[in-house]
Amino acid sequence: MGHLAGKDVFRKLGKKLDGLEIRVPWNDKLYAVLKELYSPDEAAVVVKMPYGLSTLRQMELATGYEPDALRHLLERMTAKGLVMDLWIQGEYRYTPSPMIVGIFEFTMMRVGPDLNTREWARLLHDYMDDTFYAANWESGSRFSLFRALPYEEAVQQAEYAEILDYEKASALVAQADRFSIGICSCRHEKLHLGEKGCDIPLESCTQFGFAAEMMIRNKLAREVSRGEMEDHFARSRDLGLVLTADNVQKNMRFVCHCCSCCCYLLQGISRHGFTNIIVTSGFIAGITDETCTGCGRCEQACPISAISMVTVEKPGKKRKRDAVIETTICLGCGVCALKCPTGACKLTKREQRVIPPETTFERIMLHSLEKGTLQNLLFDDPGRIDQTFLRVFVGAFLNLPPVKRALLSDGLRSAFLSVLKGGVRRQGKGWALEL
Question: Comparing C-alpha atoms, which of 121, 148, 53 is closest to residue 356?
Fold first, then answer.
């Protein structure tokens, strides 16, 4: 593969990654990232890989590599987090890691001697602080990889029964069968950049079920017990961290434990104004006027500056400040309510229920349609001429603004997903619908 060892193979790799669920705009900073993280042979394999989950045999056919050589490359890339390998129906299935959740997180979660972690931190920061935010969230997207989980203790007692299982961290821990905790990629990066402004421990990123199995096997996280995971969530509550979860109802794969000084997602909201990076929980913060003392602890606790204290000029009022909540950006995380000494700040149910996609399959389909890359998943073999034509043709149709708006609308979205699911079952890939 020496003839592909120049910049061209990394340009092709960049184009391949840009065709996944998260857009990855090309520039010299991305080239520097890819050249540092991938060898030319690794880049060439990813370029030829199908976009979706594929068996080793499917990978052999798509890449043209001999089984032993291919297996060696895949083992190297899965250990680096550049390719994800999931154990499904008695065999591994492989897919290229997207930039997030994938390349960035897994790279900065790696530990061990002789790793070039400081340089990885610099390169990833330079790229992701550039055009990456705008490429993915500038257009006001409705779907996201992430959603806020409310702290159950922060919910108004009268509405506690309204919390659904997929909104409860406690239910997630109770239902999962395997657990792992790894290093927070954001904090680890900030540490190496000299910008970590908190004393939150590095080890805080949590995974569940099949995602935990993959992380443990590839030494990207350590296995923990259910009890240790429960203690971990309790610690995050006490520290006032935002719980940012996989945006699905079933089989949630991860929960991030985020602080405002390090987290890319929270900074995307507070510093860059992309409020749609994290989907809000089904709750919103509110203040009971009669019991609020104007102490300002809720303002200090809010990780995205959605609460401000304003001077009170009403005659007869004892307190001098009121807490005002910017409801258009409030995540409904409940961190503010946990810090309120009088209980005046609580989460209440939003007027319109926030309903995440049911499964990872649904989220990927909707997110990819919105990002303009769904055609790559529908016709995922880059080596077939017929699928290349269909990707171009169907992609042009799906990306027509009226078509995209219609398929993502409340009226047609369910029917569109049903059609996609039917096609997946006919291809014998019904297992993908359960992820």
Answer: 148
Which stretches within 176-263 are classed as H helix?
185-193, 209-217, 226-239
- Asked if 47 and 1 touch (Cβ cutoff 8 Å), the reply is no
Surface-to-core class of residue 339, CB atoms within 10 Å of its CB (0-12 exposed, 13-18 middle, 19+ buried): middle
The per-residue DSSP string of 371-383 comes to HT-HHHHHS--TT
Q: Is 185 exposed, middle or buried (0-12, 13-18, 19+ CB in 10 A)?
A: buried
Residue 40: φ, ψ to 5°: -55, -40
Return the sign of the alpha-carbon dihedral for residues 260, 265, 267, 271. Answer: negative
pTM value? 0.92
Q: What is the CA radius of gyration of the chain?
A: 23
395-403 long-range contacts (CB < 8 A, ≥24 apart) are: 398/369, 398/372, 398/374, 399/372
The answer to whether 166 touches 249, Cβ cutoff 8 Å, is: yes
Point out which residues pair with 278 in neighbouring strands.
Answer: 146
Contact 408, 369 (CB under 8 A): yes
pLDDT for residue 110 is more than 50: yes
What's the rounded Cα separation, in Å, for the pair 228 and 250?
A: 22
pLDDT surpassing 90 at residue 138: no
- pLDDT tens digits, one per residue of 142-187: 889 999 999 999 999 888 888 899 999 999 999 999 999 999 999 9
Q: Are 194 and 162 in contact (CB under 8 A)?
A: no
pLDDT of residue 5: 52
Residue pair 267/171 in contact (Cβ under 8 Å)? The answer is no
What residue ranges do the domains of the chain occupy?
Answer: 2-97, 99-284+350-356, 360-434
Q: Report d(CA 341, CA 347) in Å as an integer.
A: 15
Domain 2-97 fold is: Arc Repressor Mutant, subunit A (1.10.10)
SS3 state of residue 365: helix
Residue type (1 letter), 225: S
Look at residue 6 in the predicted model and tell me its pLDDT: 60
